[in-house]
Amino acid sequence: MAHTVFCVRYKKEMEGLDEPPFDSEFGQKIYKNVSKLAWDEWVNHQKMLLNEYRLQPWTPQAQQFLVEQMDAFFFGEGSALPSEYVPPSH
Fold it and tell me: Are 35 and 13 a contacting pair, CB within 8 Å?
């Protein structure tokens, strides 16, 4: 049986992640409150942040920034877009 959560982003019961994304208390919080669909949205948002801010994801500063943005994305007011960001046209 799939792991289900009440997704904080969609405000309804949805399929959850297969496992916590991090081995930490924050990873457990995400596992218990974030759906797979919301996590996929975060992954795409994170890619945009990495590219727009030209972050080096292995640096502690970038990792801290991404955790703060992830927390805001799921549990706060939302992760802000960079001021210069132009969404891709399809």
Answer: no
